[in-house]
Amino acid sequence: MFTGGSSIQLARIFGIRIGASPSWFVVLFVFIYLMSDTFQRVLDGSSTQAYLVAVAGVLLFFTSIVLHELGHAVVAQRLGITISGIDLWFFGGLARMSSDTDSPGTELKVALAGPLVTIAIVGVCAALVAAISNGPVLDVLLFSSSVDISPALALLGFLATINAAVFLFNMVPAYPLDGGRVARAIVWKLSGDRNRATRVAGRIGEGFAYLLIGFGVFLVASGEELDGIWLAVLGWLIAQSARSAIVTTKLTERIDGITAADIMDSEPVTMPAELPLSRAEEEYFLRYGWPWFPAVDEHDRFLGIVRKDAVDEQIAAGRPALEVAEVVEIGDADDWRVDSDLPLQTLLGDERLRDRRALMVVDPEGVLRGVVTIEHVGRAVTAALPRSA
Known about the structure:
Blueprint lengths: L7 E6 L2 E5 L1 H22 L3 H32 L4 E7 L2 E6 L6 H29 L4 H5 L9 H20 L7 H14 L2 H28 L3 H30 L5 H4 L7 E2 L4 H12 L3 E5 L5 E6 H9 L16 H4 E2 L5 H5 L2 H6 L1 E5 L5 E6 H11 L5
Parallel strand pairs: 2-3, 5-6, 8-9
Antiparallel strand pairs: 1-2, 3-4, 6-7, 9-10
């Protein structure tokens, strides 16, 4: 869904970083504690058995959340959107996309990918319950006292029901939930206007959020403080995210048509690949005081980034005659590139720009045409904002 801040890396899957915010660890232990009590009643066994099932169930549930977000991430990557990572946090998970979708079709495919993974998990768990249970599947899924539920059935029933709940909640047509993004894609397709589609889905999101907040307050008044506070806070976050999306459309309408080529520095300082490191140190790093420069070949094709630390290391090692080409960072050169016609709106959401502070505008032949910095974007946005009377 929607979160910010730093996270702790847990793993990498398909090259995608999986992280967790500190709040997730709080939820993890609280969830295990609550589910231990539930499984204790359902299994009517030892507390140790209930605890182990709870640990397995909660960990598998969060694994299913990661799979849900991986569904979004893998489809987004196949459609050309860079994924900077997946984060687990207090209210679920988030696949961080470097840019917004560029068409209704892309929006729809990315939005549906996660829920389709979740409903597949529900189907697999329900099928396994049907295969190993002697009683009605629905009774097992609802933990009915009329059937004998083993630890395996309890675990599968829990995973099926909680993922079904996640699916139903996510498919509510309220932005920024997945269902809201589906609604956005449909309105976008019908109207041809992404901003209008965002406003429609965002207003539905606001209305749904206020219902959640109201229901949360009702639960608190009824004595169910924990559930009520959780729902109210979740509703507040959805309302904030939906409202932010609506406000953003006003800005995007003003910057529509502005591209990277319009705001870039078209005469950036570049470092020739054949330049000796001693001259690179003297003529570039000491002169400008910058920590890195883009390196280009004799045809001005962008090769990668040259960092001061790498140059200093080679000079200190007695190799000042080495050429810049020997220390240029070629491996992630593609991550620095953007097209000249990339919309300013896309740059605003580009996490690479936020992390690196600058990106290289490169043409189809690989020639460096300019450099766009976060300051360029900031000035363009400021110029687009309405003037106060």
